[in-house]
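Quality-control log, excerpt.
Job 1 of 2 completed; input and output follow.
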Amino acid sequence: MSKRKHESSDLIILDDDSSSTSSSEVIIETHEKPSCKYGSKCYRKNSEHINQFYHPKQISLSKEALSLKEQNSSGSKKFKVVPAPKQNLIFLTKVHDVPHASEINSTYSLSLKDILEKDKQGFVASAQFNYLHDLEWLLEQYPEENRDKPLTIIHGNSKRTELDLLAEAYSNITLVKAKIESPYGTHHTKMMFLLYKTGLKIVVHTSNLIEADWSQKTQGIWISTLFPKISSESKKPQIAYDSKTKFKNYLLTYLEHYRDEKLNYWMQVIKSHDMTTANVFLIGSCPGRFPSSKKIFGHVRLRKVLSDYLKISSPVEQPDQLVCQFSSIGSLGPSEDKWLCKEFSQSLSSCNNSMSSIITKPILIYPSVEDVFRSFEGPLAGGSLPYSKSVAIKQPYLNNFFHRWRADKTARTRASPHIKTFARYSNDFKKLYWFLLTSANLSKAAWGSFEKNESQYHILSYEIGVLFIPSILNEERDFFDLNGSEPEFLVPYDLPPTKFADKDKPWLVDYLLNI
């Protein structure tokens, strides 16, 4: 079995040499030419281009897949548009093929161009933290007058790639290579710094910097307010310019762990801006082994914040619901009580009420095979859902936790999810106690795991997310009200989640063979 990176995937596609496939598997021919970045949608007809680049042929689908494809095209469904999110809450990315796209997408969705076009006249410089980068496409998203402004790209490529070659042609681009200690770790953080003459914006999101991630997938975005620059005449200490969530201090702590002098410029920029309006907590991960007393990264960080700030009191007879929604799954151990329903669930169940019990059976939202086939992208959407058979067969207990990807209220059931969210709800799903939008999938590499009798924890990857706690936005509220026609928070999927039926199977990336 060989490994190769797929353009639209966050992780590695496994190329299985076996010729046998199940009824739902898809076979795509192998090729040696570099892939055309426009894939099967390429409109170029000249022979030189066609001979130089590989263009995928129409996918050969099984009878089951063809049946699902026919169901996809049998009329469109009308969706009720949910209200626009309030300031500083999440947005979704625009999806090209959403029915009634102009109405739904304009309500609460943004493209990368939308983000970069705003305040373009006062734009100074930017930084892009990410996993996958299509540099030429990325530059096209910036307003033309800002494409030569300083751009720092933070990546985790261990070897010299096309990104390095292209960056050398631009004098305004600086590359920062994140230090990754393990071959199983990645630089998975998705964040932007946008500097203007009038202030600084921080954007945390879930999309790779490639066209496919911003066009037909469900993705999440959080955009800060414009943080103003601190007056040079100010005599106040730095702490006076941080929020009650200690957003600024944590962001600096996170950047320090890159241990790269090229980021000193951005650290000084952050120090020079007033971030008192930041009303979210940053939940980050950085590679390393940390003593359990140092609660700064991974699920240990989330546990600490929830224990300190979350006000909650749930009756024992109606336990709350933990919902974990993601696009990839790592190796979680041979049984549910090794990590998922033990240390991870304990962290997600934390609050400042010592009488509240641990929620040991989280709901896991992950696409089924049917969900992927019915998506706008069809089975190719599965390239960004890299849960492999070799991992799945070692943890069959997860099948008891899986729920379908359903997002009719946001018109994104067929927009395959690359968004990652974690949340706690009341038993009837009418109250939302906290919500985390993050780059982290369901894996120990992203969240960390305890070692040495819980005296330390080990993390392999870089991740970042924003945590919303209602009382931080409004001291009088302990939850976001989801009841009624105007919910107080934009939940990207439908509630209550739909549990897998007996016939449902989780999507495995092995259904895409020999790419």
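Job 2 of 2 completed; input and output follow.
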Amino acid sequence: MSRPLYRGVSGVRTPEHNHDSWESHNKDKLDKEDLDKKGSSNHSSLPLKSPLKLLFSDNSHSKFGTNENGYSSDPLIGTARSRHKLVLHLLKCSLVFLVILALAGSFLWTVSISTTSRGQIYHGYRRLQEKLVSDLLDIGELSSAPSKMKELEFCSPELENYVPCYNISDNMGLGNSDGDQLDRQCGPELRQNCLILSPTNYKIPLRWPTGRDVIWVANVKITAQEVLSSGSLTKRMMMLDEEQISFRSASLMFDGVEDYSHQIAEMIGLRNESNFIQAGVRTILDIGCGYGSFGAHLFQSQLLTMCVADYEPSGSQVQLTLERGLPAMIASITSKQLPFPSLSFDMLHCARCGIDWDQKDGLLLIEADRLLKPDGYFVWTSPLVNARNKDNQERWKVIHDFTENLCWEMLSQQDETVVWKKTSKRNCYSSRKNGSPPPLCGRGYDVESPYYRDLKNCIAGTHSSRWISIDKRATWPSRDNLNKEELAIHGLQSDEIMEDNESWRTTVQNYWSLLSPLIFSDHPKRPGEEDPPPPYNMLRNILDMNAHFGGFNSALLRAGKSVWVMNVIPISGPNYLPLIHDRGYVGVLHDWCEAFPTYPRTYDLVHADGLLSLETSQQRRCTMFDMFIEIDRILRPEGWVIIRDTIPIVESARALIARLKWDARVVEIESDSHQRLLICQKPFFKRQAN
């Protein structure tokens, strides 16, 4: 477990107490305890409930009072009493005069106060207001779920790989079948209010790129038997020993993935896979990706491949792919739309992915068409393509005919692989024979915010202003800078994006200057790792919980960080997810009152900019603490959390985070006096061996 975060960082002010005064603090504490003991012996029956009671308390103990020796005063004193009255009268007059003089001076000072001074006073008043709001938020959170916080414990061993919302047995009990039992079913009753421990033999993953090809067996729920029972291609791509799984996709000794990707490029009409970028391909959706080797190979060509696969209780494709530092998420395409906007990907890939595209009256192919950009490619590898028996040939004919109705052009077929190209011409749909199905969706059909909706039996996106051929879009990395016309589609101006990019450039520099000394002082080098040029390889999988325009993702890549970012757009905020996909990144819509579709321990860094303010400003069915428990679930041991929000929110979050046993500190943002950073690190807790 890493050491507490008490190190300073140059250029950053930390409004914390001085930890070097620990000894003096303990001395004051001992003095206070001595005073408390003395006070308790003399006044144990008189607790002090309010400082106002002490200020305005009546000191008289009898009708006439007592002197310092305890004797009663004589009520029949004549001349002396008159003199006392005169003195008291003069004192009262003097007090009134001083009050009048003070009020007059205060009035003159107020009149002469400068604009700058007024701003300082207002700023002080603003800080008092924020402190009050922070206190109220703390009270609200603590009062809304006190039992959750008090009863928070470590989860049982069977929940080490638990993913909320995916309970196959419960779904089958509801009558779901034919693949629907894999569907996502979320509800507040499914939330687990406990902290998930790491497996007994869990080890911190190797840094990228070593971790792409070598992972620890104990970190994923897969056995040697499951590896041996997998397909022949999978077995050839993996080597399993007692502690590690090695992938040979990048090895010169194994060229299966390289030959396969080279074949696809030739079928499209390209020289090799390195020319995908020139053909307009940047983002690829890999459905049923196996263990991510296709995306791992294409990463060196600057192609971003998002793996989606069904939830699997063991031997998960998604879990293993994320462990390798590659983009992946749990998603089923059986009955619901995926949480991506329409026209999002340049290529869809399905190699023995287990999807029966001929089933459900073509609904699955319609969903694939929805996700594909105009002139995008659909690559399918299956024994059905080269079938010999009559039944499989009939199934292949159904798929072939239906793709024609979708206005897909079949470019090539080789062995078991076929490549289609989606049309970019809208008039193709009106020229179909006899109005062939499926019909076009209406103009009012919202295709930008599909959050696990039922599959729709109509072709979407044809009315969208984002209907732009990938051939006419800028190639990567120029695609990151959308032109004026493309930005206007999203209601933005060029100067807005430029300002956002510059802001995130500075922010990322600050993040790295803060994290680098902390990470590399704790873990300068682990066994089997190369010496990374700091801070290049210290993080790989990043989750941005409130991605806005995708500026954080863009700034990381511009700074040369070898990372990938899952950009998440909360359904409670403005939807800029289509913009993020148009810029050449990947992301999803998500409701943060529900579990994120991933396995435990899959992200190195979780980033939340303004998310807590967004969520707490609405009437939500979950608390801030519920979101923190979910972050803890998906964060790797020794992983990092950066919360960037208003001062009251950050202070409230810090009070709640203490329950999670995270190491945390607040960092002041120099350029913004109303915001703070909360930097947290998750400790390395793992289950002890029996």
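Post-run check on job 2. The CA atoms of residues 197 and 251 lie 34 Å apart.
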